[in-house]
Design brief:
The complex is a heterodimer of chains A (234) and B (541).
Chain A: H1 2-12, E1 18-23, H2 26-38, E2 44-47, H3 55-59, H4 66-90, H5 120-143, E3 166-171, H6 179-188, E4 193-198, E5 201-205, H7 214-220
Antiparallel strand pairs in A: 1-3, 1-4, 2-3, 4-5
Helix pairs in contact in A: 4-5
Chain B: H1 2-13, H2 41-53, H3 58-84, H4 99-123, H5 133-154, H6 180-217, H7 220-230, H8 237-270, H9 282-308, H10 317-348, H11 351-361, H12 367-379, H13 387-390, H14 393-420, H15 435-458, H16 464-469, H17 508-513, H18 528-537
Helix pairs in contact in B: 1-18, 3-15, 4-5, 4-8, 4-9, 4-14, 5-6, 5-15, 6-7, 6-8, 8-9, 9-10, 9-14, 10-11, 10-12, 12-14
Chain lengths: 234, 541
């Protein structure tokens, strides 16, 4: 049972198996993506500590469909707000509905039981609530979050993607993916370091896609930076 | 080369092609750099995260102890109140809305600045919001929590507070949807929910940052807890794409929401017939007042936090000046509304209205409250017309405090002064709070500061990813090889001459020399950093 679950999670994460290359800055990252797409790679992703202006265009990604989902969510909330107020004050009294779910019309000076004008605030607030919940739920769903397992986390270097590291990832699912060739391509466009990431860990590789021996790795590649002392910048 | 490079560095740090001036001084506030001190991306991470990772300072424990005492007082005040009923308050005929409602409106109003900074300034592309939005949103959440205390316990029988919600119940009854008080239930609770979502979505990338740092430091338990809340965020551009859209949508939703919330709060008053309440000016007037008081609270908190946490390069004097400009603007709008009320009372020809404003507010038994409000809200903030005062830490701190006092009194004047003398002179009475009113109010501050101190201790208090995003280095066009056709072949990064805008790349030396004293030098006027730099570097100076 546990093995099955583990297998499923790994399958889901196969997209993240592949070569991970570090670049020096956001400009280099955009440049790298343009070059790689020119070479025919499609299953690419970049990792950066902040969204990079122009990266969506460089990667050929369109506008997120989230807006349409939120529109539907908002419509649902608005209608629910309307229904709630209409049904509880002027709704049909149906026999087959349990009494606690029936409306409770109150006749005040023979005024109309229901008025849409006074229903606006609650309809509005529920529209906002449902839209906001759809925004967050939709964003998480589109991004596949929460995602507790990701082979990329095997890479020590990858931790800097949320600090000051800029990474390109070429998935092994890419049709053009070839470990040696892709490593060479990445090296050509200026990768500072390349790692092969799989479910059993991450290894640093050379331009030929072969693992770098531990001694060589230290000598040849940029070492993992040590966290410097804290300074307030003054 | 070194001289020219570092001289123009600060001018171009402002982003958006801020022009370099001969002495390196940004000409206007708009040109001033958003981040000072020539920080690298890693420096920003370090500056913010360091405070969640270091050993808890003793000062924090002292502050937390004081705040926690406030929570104890809150518990006592609530226990006594619930045991005896709201009769323990000073409420009496005809003033049945006293401090509790004043405090409710006061706290909700404070919360609004957080949403304004995070949502409305985001829609207006005000990049300076990035340094303060996290703390301001946290302030919103905690202010709403404090606000909700008051109506919740004001109902008297707090154990049936769920009657305010449309839940099927054994009485087969539903709430009265035509009442503004019920709209308040929806507006404020949904406001709290959406603010929490907004805050958490903004936090996800920063939680991932702190998580990855915990992994590298080998703190497994910490990494696991943070990993749970960071949801497996990696900073993938495919995720940023949806994330940025989500953030924009949330900002677009929170903006009308925040305007609606204080409008609905003002309906509590405006929909009734009491002279002084029954006026259509209330929704915009309340919203302006909310922004006014909220910004004052942000200034109060940030002036202290940036000093205590060494964040003066991120929350610069320019940020504070911009907030002071908003305080000046909204304070004047509020003052204008006060005067409009007098005009409308006179113009309406209704003698009750005229008596309320001309007979009671300015000269009646609560005239002291009225004049406190007038001076704190309309008169004192006018000092911010002077740039020198806008950039003076002691003055802005003092004004932020008087503003909060003034805005509390505004709600007091509206609530109590209007009620205590309405149509029928035989029912007039003077209202005074009791000890239990005061203790509950003090307790709400205890709750607010307890939550805020926990936030400062455990959560990155500045939106790291957003601040990095507005730094000039974040723009791919900043570099030669961005492949957009800008670049000449002349320099690649390797040869040290590759930065087209002549910004000093980060190094320890540059770091030490390129100091921008963004601190509390009151007259820095944006020139402190560059001017100081020119002094040290430019031989001709």
């Amino acid at each position: 049972m546990l093995n099955t679950i583990r297998q499923r999670i790994e399958d889901r994460s196969n997209q993240n198996v592949g070569l991970l290359a570090e670049f020096s800055d956001p400009g280099a990252l955009v440049h790298a993506i343009e070059e790689l797409r020119g070479k025919g790679y499609t299953q690419l992703d970049t990792f950066s500590p902040f969204p990079i202006h122009g990266m969506d265009r460089a990667m050929g990604l369109g506008v997120s469909p989230l807006g349409y989902m939120v529109f539907l969510g908002g419509i649902t909330g608005g209608f629910l707000g309307f229904f709630l107020q209409w049904y509880t004050s002027d709704g049909p009294q149906l026999d087959w509905v349990d009494v606690i779910l029936q409306g409770y019309p109150i006749n005040i000076s023979n005024k109309p039981l229901f008025a849409w004008e006074s229903s606006i605030p609650v309809m509005f607030e529920l529209t906002i609530l449902f839209s906001a919940l759809t925004v967050v739920g939709g964003m998480l769903a589109l991004n596949g979050l929460p995602k507790p397992y990701n082979p990329l986390f095997f890479s020590d270097r990858f931790g800097r993607a949320t600090d000051d590291g800029f990474f390109v990832h070429v998935s092994m699912r890419d049709r053009s993916f070839d470990r040696a060739q892709t490593a060479a391509d990445l090296s050509d466009i200026g990768a500072l370091a390349i790692e092969y990431v799989d479910h059993d860990g991450a290894v640093e590789v050379s331009e030929t896609g072969e693992p770098v021996a531990a001694d060589d790795a230290q000598a040849a590649q940029t070492p993992l930076p040590v966290l410097p002392e804290h300074s307030p910048g003054e | 080369m070194a001289t020219t490079t570092s001289k123009s560095a600060y001018a171009s740090l402002g982003g958006d092609g801020a022009p370099a001036y001969p002495d390196g001084t940004p000409k206007t506030l708009e040109d001033a750099p958003l981040v000072r001190g020539n920080l690298s991306f890693h420096d920003v991470t370090e500056l913010v995260c360091h405070h969640t990772e270091k050993k808890t300072p003793i000062g924090w424990f002292i502050a937390f102890g004081v705040a926690l005492t406030g929570v104890g007082i809150l518990g006592l005040a609530i226990a006594y109140l619930v045991w005896n009923g709201p009769g323990v308050w000073g409420l009496t005929n005809p003033v049945f809305w006293g401090w509790a409602i004043v405090n409710f409106v006061f706290w909700v109003g404070i919360g609004h600045a957080g949403t304004l900074i995070s949502a409305i300034l985001f829609l207006f592309r005000q990049k300076w919001r990035t340094s303060i939005n996290r703390a301001a949103e946290a302030m919103t959440l905690f202010a709403v929590a404090s606000a909700l205390l008051f109506p919740t316990f004001h109902v008297g029988r707090v154990w049936v507070i769920y009657w305010t919600l449309p839940l099927p119940n054994q009485m087969a009854m539903w709430p009265n949807f035509k009442s503004p008080l019920l709209w308040d239930v929806f507006a404020v609770s949904i406001y709290g929910t959406v603010s929490l979502l907004f805050w958490y979505v903004g936090l996800i990338p920063d939680l991932a940052t702190v998580r990855d740092r915990a992994v590298r430091m080998g703190k497994t338990l910490r990494a696991r807890i943070l990993g749970f809340f960071a949801l497996g965020w990696t900073g993938s551009n495919r995720a940023w794409r949806h994330y940025e859209r989500a953030y924009l949508l949330l900002a677009g939703l929170a903006t009308p929401l925040v305007l609606s919330v204080h409008s609905v709060v003002s309906f509590d008053f405006a929909v009734s017939l009491i002279p002084g309440w029954h006026t259509t000016i209330f929704p915009p007037y309340f919203v302006a007042g909310a922004i006014f008081s909220g910004f004052a609270m942000v200034v109060t908190l940030m002036v202290v936090a940036r000093k205590v946490f060494d964040l003066e390069n991120l929350i610069t004097i320019d940020h504070l000046e911009k907030m002071n400009i908003i305080i000046l603007l909204t304070g004047t709008i509020v003052g204008f509304a006060y005067i409009t009320e007098f005009f409308m009372a006179w113009y309406s020809g209704v003698e009750y209205e005229q008596y309320q404003f001309f007979g009671v507010r300015m000269t009646g038994p609560y005239a002291w409250a009225y004049w406190t409000m007038m001076s704190c809200n309309l008169i004192f903030p006018q000092v911010f017309w002077v740039k020198k005062f806008r950039r003076s830490i002691p003055i802005m701190f003092a004004i932020s405090i008087t503003t909060n006092i003034g805005m509390w009194f505004e709600r007091f004047v509206i609530t109590v002064t209007s009620l205590h003398r309405d149509f029928l002179p035989s029912s007039w009475d003077y209202y005074s709070p009791t000890l239990w009113d005061v203790l509950l109010y003090i307790g709400s501050f205890g709750l607010f500061f307890t939550l805020f101190l926990l936030f400062l201790r455990f959560v990155p208090m500045v939106a790291i990813a957003e601040v990095k995003g507005v730094m000039p280095q974040a723009d791919p066009h900043f570099y030669h090889h961005s492949g957009d056709g800008h670049a000449g072949g002349a320099g690649h990064v390797g040869d040290g001459d590759g930065l087209p805008h002549e910004v000093t790349p980060y190094s320890d030396e540059a770091h030490a020399e390129g100091t921008a004293p963004a601190g509390d030098a009151p007259l820095a006027s944006g020139a402190g950093g560059p001017a100081g730099d020119a002094d040290t570097d430019d031989p001709t100076a």
